[in-house]
């Protein structure tokens, strides 16, 4: 019998589970506890007995995390088309239409601006209910524009992932979004604007392999599946038993791949604390970052493994210092004061370390000071 042919007609594929349970009572998918709907809602759709985190829509996350009424959606006009005229069992165009009707979203990610306890940020939240939270050209473009907005306003960026990976219906156009997002995130990093990544269940495929894994701080919800290929695929491929808890948030935390596991009840508070921390850190005198090319040049100058294993490409003498010659320190740009501290407004002394106690909030805008030119990576 062919493995690829269905021998029996009329076999039904199981229906997808509802994203948000409705009715008076809901059974926990993890421990089987019967939960009162109102209680579940109060607990932000997490089980009161075992802490299982139910999957929730992007707009619900926005409601949970941001100050009430502060969210302004951006880039909703960027929507997927069907560039390949893709069709498998259904037309991609029909799948898109159905996903839009079911979720009330126009793409798998909702991007916008808002505040958390008064601190502005740019936020993107993926919605698994929209074609498995898959990243295609429009989702990637929204992320890219969100990063550029964050860069322009110097407001921290938060991206919350829930995705099966790149969307196959758009082929390479989906895959290239990975490189696009990460190239822009590198610019954001060079500019010193913080990026916080939150991984929820599940974060897999091209999303894990790109923007979700490169946050300055990476948070995850408890027991979320996080990985590239799923555990079943890996097990079948390598034909070995996988360690217990493989590809869960807890496993990744133990291996140092993520920074903290945060219960949904604590997510807003944690984000608020991080925004406050970064805002205070941005006020401290900072040594300007070296550009990627300079780091490599310094590495070669001290005779690192790259210099030993491969001959460096020929460069003009001033760009490629001979081994042993100390690399010239990065000079602050003209817009900076001494030590790379942003030039203070007239009448004020140069920025000093703020004397703040934990819990205090430096009032006003928390835009990160444009203390240096944004270097473009080589
Ligand atoms: Zn439970």
UniProtKB/TrEMBL annotation:
One of its GO terms (cellular component) is acetyl-CoA carboxylase complex. Zn(2+) binds at residues 28, 31, 47, 50. It holds the Pfam family Zn_ribbon_ACC. Its cofactor is Zn(2+). Its main location: cytoplasm. GO terms for biological process: fatty acid biosynthetic process; malonyl-CoA biosynthetic process. Residues 24-293 form the CoA carboxyltransferase N-terminal domain. It is found in: Cytoplasm. Residues 311-324 have a biased composition (Pro residues). A zinc finger (C4-type) spans 28-50. Pathway: Lipid metabolism; malonyl-CoA biosynthesis; malonyl-CoA from acetyl-CoA: step 1/1. PROSITE patterns: COA_CT_NTER. Component of the acetyl coenzyme A carboxylase (ACC) complex. Biotin carboxylase (BC) catalyzes the carboxylation of biotin on its carrier protein (BCCP) and then the CO(2) group is transferred by the transcarboxylase to acetyl-CoA to form malonyl-CoA. Belongs to the AccD/PCCB family. Acetyl-CoA carboxylase is a heterohexamer composed of biotin carboxyl carrier protein (AccB), biotin carboxylase (AccC) and two subunits each of ACCase subunit alpha (AccA) and ACCase subunit beta (AccD). This is Acetyl-coenzyme A carboxylase carboxyl transferase subunit beta. It comes from Eiseniibacteriota bacterium.
């Amino acid at each position: 019998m062919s493995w690829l042919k269905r021998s029996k007609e009329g076999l039904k594929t199981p229906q997808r589970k509802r994203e948000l349970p409705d009715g008076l009572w809901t059974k926990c998918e993890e421990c089987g506890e019967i939960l009162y709907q109102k209680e579940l809602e109060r607990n932000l759709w997490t089980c009161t007995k075992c802490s299982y985190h139910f999957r929730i829509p992007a707009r619900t996350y926005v409601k949970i995390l941001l100050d009430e009424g502060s969210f302004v959606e951006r880039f909703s006009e960027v929507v997927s088309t069907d560039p390949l005229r893709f069709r498998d069992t259904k037309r991609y165009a029909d799948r898109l239409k159905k996903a839009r009707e079911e979720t009330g979203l126009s793409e798998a990610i909702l991007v916008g601006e808002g505040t958390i306890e008064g601190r502005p940020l740019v936020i993107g939240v993926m919605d698994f209910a929209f074609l498995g939270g898959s990243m295609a050209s429009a989702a990637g473009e929204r992320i890219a524009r969100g990063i550029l907005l964050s860069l322009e306003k110097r407001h921290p960026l938060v991206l919350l992932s829930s995705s099966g990976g790149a969307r196959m219906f758009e082929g390479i156009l989906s895959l290239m979004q990975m490189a696009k997002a990460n190239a822009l995130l590198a610019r954001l990093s060079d500019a010193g604007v913080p990026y916080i990544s939150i991984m929820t269940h599940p974060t897999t495929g091209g999303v894990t392999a790109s923007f979700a894994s490169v946050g300055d701080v990476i948070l995850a919800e408890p027991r979320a599946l996080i990985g590239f290929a799923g555990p079943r695929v890996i097990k079948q491929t390598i034909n070995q038993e996988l360690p217990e808890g493989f590809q869960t948030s807890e496993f990744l935390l133990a291996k140092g791949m993520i920074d903290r596991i945060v219960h949904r009840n604590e997510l807003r508070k944690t984000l608020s604390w991080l925004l406050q921390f970064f805002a205070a850190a941005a006020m401290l005198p900072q040594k300007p970052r070296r550009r990627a090319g300079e780091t490599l040049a310094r590495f070669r100058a001290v005779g690192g493994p790259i210099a030993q294993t491969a001959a460096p490409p020929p460069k003009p003498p001033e760009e490629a210092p001979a081994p042993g010659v100390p690399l010239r320190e990065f000079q602050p740009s003209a817009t900076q004061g001494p030590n790379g501290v942003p030039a203070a407004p007239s009448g004020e002394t140069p920025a000093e370390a703020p004397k703040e106690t934990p819990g205090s909030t430096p009032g006003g805008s928390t835009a990160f000071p444009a203390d240096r030119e944004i270097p473009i990576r080589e």
